[in-house]
Task: structure prediction
Amino acid sequence: MVFDSVHYLRRIERKIMAFDQAAPLQNWELPEAFATLQRLLEARQGKAGKRENVQVLRLLERFELDVLHITI
Result:
């Protein structure tokens, strides 16, 4: 079964503690910068950092990945 990960982000944002176990996000391959951002946000802000990370990921609802992640 193939999930559209972006589609589920709005729901996960409301139930943020489901983020780590959400099946639609399990095999989602994003650039390492997104994982780094997630670790930093969660380390600094805990649950609020998880929610902020999902808000960043929700930018993918409007923008392509290559616009949000530029390799220098």
Summary: The helical segments are 5-14, 32-45, 47-57, 65-68. The chain has a mean pLDDT of 91. The CA atoms of residues 8 and 24 lie 7 Å apart.
